Each structure stands twice: as structure tokens, then as C-alpha cells.
Amino acid sequence: MNALHQHMIDSYRTTAHGTRLPPHPGTLDWQATRELVSQAALTRRRKRSLRERWAGRRGSGERG
Questions:
Q1: What confidence tens digit (pLDDT) does each residue in 4-15 have?
Q2: How many CA atoms within 13 Å lie on the side-chain side of 1?
Q3: Is the pLDDT of residue 62 over 60?
Q4: Are 14 and 22 in contact (CB under 8 A)?
């Protein structure tokens, strides 16, 4: 079964239940890609911030 067949089945189910139709296959691909890239960038920034914070504590001799 490909994406078009799945979309047809999902569309049939949603009309039977009276809910909202799903988006067509491929319409949200770029949005999902942008969200993944921005999430990865945020994770890198957080890791870098933690490394810098811990690097500053090593030489100070203080804990806390």
C-alpha cells in the first residue's frame, strides 16, 4: 500500500466518523523537515551551553 492508498482509506474513515480530513500526502513534508532541523539546532545550542558551563566550573575549584 502506498501513501495515496492510505490517504484514501483515512479519508473514508474520517468522513464516516464526521471528523476532519487528513492532509494530502506530501503537503507537510517541508514543514516537518524545518521543525526537525530547528529542533536539532536547539539541542546543539543546549549541549554547547552545558559544556561551556561545566568547562567554567572545572578550573574554579568551586562546587554548586
A1: 899 899 999 999
A2: 6
A3: no
A4: yes
The span from the CA of 39 to the CA of 2, in Å, is 29
- For the chain, where are the alpha helices, taking DSSP H only? 3-17, 29-58
In the numeric block, which cell numbers belong to residue 18?
Answer: 464526521
Grid cell at residue 21: 480530513
pLDDT at position 13 is: 93
Q: Give strand ranges (E) for the chain.
A: none
Question: For the whole model, what pTM was predicted?
Answer: 0.46
Could you tell me which residues come within 8 angstroms of residue 14 by beta carbon, excluding any fewer than 6 positions away? Answer: 20, 21, 22
Spatial neighbors of 27 by CB under 8 A, at least 6 apart, are: none
Q: Hey, what amino acid is at 36?
A: L
